[in-house]
Amino acid sequence: MPTKLTAALLMLICGCSTTATISRINGAAFDAKITHSDRELLFLKTEGGPEVAIPRKEVADIDHPGNGTAVFGGLLSAYGVLNIAAGIGTCSEVGGAYCVGTFLPAAIGLPMLIWGLRTWSNSTSAAENQSTSGYTGVVPSPAPASPFDFSPPADSRRVNALRTR
Questions:
Q1: Is residue 66 very low, low, confident or very high in pLDDT (cuts 50, 70, 90)?
Q2: Long-range contacts of the stretch 44-49 (C-beta < 8 A, 24+)
Q3: Per the domain annotation, does 164 fall within a domain?
Q4: Which range has highest mean pLDDT (1-5, 68-72, 133-137)?
Q5: Residue 48 included in any domain
Q6: Bridge partners, residue 30, by sequence
Q7: How does DSSP assign 82-149, residue by residue?
Q8: Is 160 inside any structural domain?
Q9: 85 is in which domain, residue-wise?
Q10: Is 60 exceeded by the pLDDT of residue 6?
Q11: Which of 49, 71, 75, 107 is most exposed, with minimal Cβ within 10 Å?
Q12: Contacts with 103 (C-beta within 8 Å, 6 or more apart), sequence order
């Protein structure tokens, strides 16, 4: 029985991917990893293909990876905590196999919860607008060459007009 349970859990964990399902407004949906984004585009990496940019206005919905695993891991962890609270008193009396069964749900659920939350968080943060250009259209004036630079400004006509008076 433990071998079948272990195999089933490994298949469950390995079957979870890190690709998001992106649904477009034209009805097409595809799986890809969101690498980064800006205000207008999502940059996606598909299996075996180059990075592709699609406009945000063409995206209808994004199903981020990890949310199902996080929910299942959270429920399994909660059950594991209750199981530990109920069985910790009899663990020393009954023996090893009982103690393993008492702690096993929490030991499996907590890593699943952490992996799911991390995967979901990475995908959602990559899909958020992360434009770091900071472009405002204003060109800053250059800094002076030295804090002790007392030379006249570039347009020295006004300075020269003051000197002649």
A1: very high
A2: 47/19
A3: no
A4: 68-72
A5: yes
A6: 22
A7: HHHHHHHHHHHHH-HHHHHHHHHHHHHHHHHHHHHHHHHHHHHHHHS--------SPPPPPPPS-TT-
A8: no
A9: 15-127
A10: yes
A11: 49
A12: 80, 83, 84
Q: Annotate 2-34 with b (16+ C-beta within 10 A) or e (fewer).
A: eeeeeeeeeeeeeeeebbbebeeeeeeeeebbb
Q: Tell me which residue has tokens 């990496």.
A: 45
CA distance 113 to 77: 8
3-state DSSP assignment of residue 65: coil
Helix%, strand%, coil% for the chain, nearest 5: 50, 20, 30
Please enumerate in sequence order all residues whose Cβ is within 8 A of that of 120, keeping only pairs 6 or more positions apart, or say none: 64, 65, 66, 67, 70
What is the model's pLDDT at position 159? 47
Mean pLDDT calculated for residue range 96-116? 90
Query: What's 38's domain CATH number?
Result: 2.30.30.100
Structure tokens at 73: 């891991």
> Residue written as tokens 């958020």?
128
CA distance 129 to 142: 30
